[in-house]
Amino acid sequence: MNNFADMKTAFIGIGNMGGATVRGLIGKGILRAEDVSCCDINTATLERLAQDCPGIKTTSDSREAARGADCIVLAVKPWLVEQVIGQIKDLLDLKRQNLVVIAAGVTFEMLCGWLGQDATIFRVIPNTAIAVGSSMSFVSALNATPERSAAIVEMFGALGKAVLIPEGKLGEGT
Questions:
Q1: CA 136, CA 143: separation in Å to the nearest integer?
Q2: Confidence of residue 174 (pLDDT cuts 50, 70, 90)
Q3: How far, in Å, CA of 93 to CA of 45, rounded?
Q4: What is the signed CA dihedral for 15, 35, 54, 103, rounded to 10 degrees?
Q5: Cα–Cα distance between 173 and 107 in angstroms, integer?
Q6: In what order do the strands lie in the sheet with 71-74?
Q7: How far apart are CA 100 and CA 7, in angstroms?
């Protein structure tokens, strides 16, 4: 899945971190705007992002954003992750799709409780410098092939530096 040019990507939650990631990936040409769907409950936030990234699809419906995506990035507040997963769970095919969770403190154990033990999941801890390609992103993978892990590291590495580390080394209480 390293061919990002053809990858349909959904971002659910486009606040500070989600929005910075979208802006960075589109601004660097990693993703094409027309292949990106963004979801947020704040319509003003969606409108600002649509102005910054012409061509993206915007919605306040997480199911609409996730439908048909190759990669789904959840960048919501940690206490909302379970709720959002509940909304989209029946649309997920985690043998095919990459699920990337950007939410500090939401562990693989918690995610597997909501998604099942065999789910392929990535946790990413970037910083807002991702919008300008200067982030240091830490990536952890669960049940992922080396190829899928490399693709996520490559994606976030295009926006600065990214390293694959065990979840316990994320340094945020996990």
A1: 23
A2: very low
A3: 28
A4: 10
A5: 9
A6: 57-59, 36-39, 9-12, 71-74, 98-101, 121-125, 135-142, 160-164
A7: 14
3-state secondary structure string, the chain?
Answer: CCCHHHCCEEEECCCHHHHHHHHHHHHCCCCCHHHEEEECCCHHHHHHHHHHCCCCEEECCHHHHHCCCCEEEECCCHHHHHHHHHHHHHHCCCCCCEEEECCCCCCHHHHHHHHCCCCCEEEEECCHHHHHCCEEEEEEEECCCHHHHHHHHHHHHCCEEEEECCHHHCCCCC
- Tell me the CB-side half-sphere exposure of residue 167, using CA atoms within 13 A: 19
Closest CA to 101 of 79, 73, 78, 128: 73
* Mean pLDDT computed over 26-45: 95
pLDDT in tens, 84-138: 999 999 999 988 899 999 999 999 999 999 998 888 999 999 987 887 889 999 9
* Residue 136 exposure: Cα atoms within 13 Å on the Cβ side: 2
Residue 161, phi then psi, degrees to nearest 5: -120, 150
How much is the pLDDT for 87? 96
C-alpha to C-alpha distance for 137 and 53, rounded to whole angstroms:
22
Q: What is the pTM of this model?
A: 0.93
